[in-house]
Amino acid sequence: MAADRIKVGVVGVGYLGKIHAEKYARIPEAELIGVVDIDEGRCREMAVHTSCQPLYHHRDLLGRVEAVSIAVPTISHYGVTKDFLSAGVDVLLEKPITATVAEAQELNALAQERGAIFQIGHLERFNGALEAMNGVLKNPLLIESCRLSPFPGRGTDVDVILDMMIHDIDIILSILGPDIEGIEAVGTPFCSPHIDVAHARLIFKNGCVAHLSASRIAQEKLRKMVILQKDSYLSVDYMKQSLTITRRGKRGRAGMQVDEVARQNDPLEMQLKAFLQSVRERTPPVCSGEDGQRALEVAIRIADAIDRDMK
pLDDT, tens digit, for every residue of 86-139? Predict the structure, then answer.
């Protein structure tokens, strides 16, 4: 059985990478070979904690692993990922895919050329509340998403659109497709040099409209989405992993029918297991590099709209 385990590594063991390493160390299908971080003390501590080897440059994993999770600052996504894809190593890259669309395009082309699995860490794809929408999601007329957090003190190397809103962009694109007719947006910096609060309106060619709000200066944490359809109103609570379905009363009868479905899971563990399954079976990942690129393209269009509004 041990011989069938997939040899994996984790590059960057800060807040998210640490969790990746801990979960790989417990997943039977994976063999955690090493962790990498430029902070040598943190790297050694994590290696002891997960019973693997500490390494201090990502290239030290080359030749030792079949797959890797990359959780480094966004500015380093392109360079680190390129080295692994060039060597044919399968990659799970934390979101956003890259800092620029050109970098994303190059990585996707490289993954295709090398036949490598390239998955992007849009974690909400694995939230149980979204799974519960299967069979009830039909033809959305309106989508509203709200993603709020207190100021985190991390992840502020990018704006709130790439840090937080991009999750909702990815989910909405997975529901409606990429055909956007127009984008309107407002936002402003507040606690960092980048945009900390953003509101966007996406108008899709099929007539659906999506409103997205993201803030990292809120007093409390909130992760919700509502979807209006002709015959139902769906309310997703990502934190509770619950879906509330409100349906019209039957023809000729007043009132509403309300059902709540909760599907608790561990989204990050599910994401890692899905990645390992793609690696083993050579099947397309749940959230591909192309998906990550499309979300990035829309995020940059929103940021550009805000920049124009601020001038």
Answer: 999 999 999 999 999 999 999 999 999 999 999 999 999 999 999 889 889 999
Identify whether the C-beta of residue 26 lies closer than 8 Å to the C-beta of residue 5.
no
Rounded-to-integer distance, Cα 7 and Cα 29, Å: 9
Phi-psi region of 242 (alpha: psi -120 to 50; beta: other; left: phi over 0): beta
- Integer Cα distance of 195 and 306 in angstroms: 9
Phi-psi region of 163 (alpha: psi -120 to 50; beta: other; left: phi over 0): alpha
- Which CATH fold would you assign to the domain 2-122+268-286? Rossmann fold (3.40.50)
Q: d(Cα 152, Cα 116) in Å, to the nearest integer?
A: 34
Both structure tokens of 168: 């909702």
* Domain ranges (residues) in the chain: 2-122+268-286, 125-266+298-310
Q: What is the DSSP string of 37-55?
A: -SSHHHHHHHHHHHTSEEE
Radius of gyration of the chain (CA): 20
Rounded average pLDDT over 189-207: 94
Dihedral Cα 37, 39, 45, 47, nearest 10 deg: 20
Residue identified by tokens 């962790």 is 35
Helix (H) / strand (E) containing 95: none
Question: What does each C-alpha distance from 127 to 8, 34, 243 come to in angstroms?
Answer: 24, 28, 11
Tokens of 99: 């800092």
Query: Which fold would CATH assign to domain 125-266+298-310?
Result: Dihydrodipicolinate Reductase; domain 2 (3.30.360)
What are the residues whose beta carbons fall under 8 Å from the beta carbon of 191, sequence distance 6 or more?
Answer: 151, 156, 216, 217
Q: pLDDT, tens digit, for every residue of 271-284? A: 999 999 999 999 99
d(CA 92, CA 271): 9
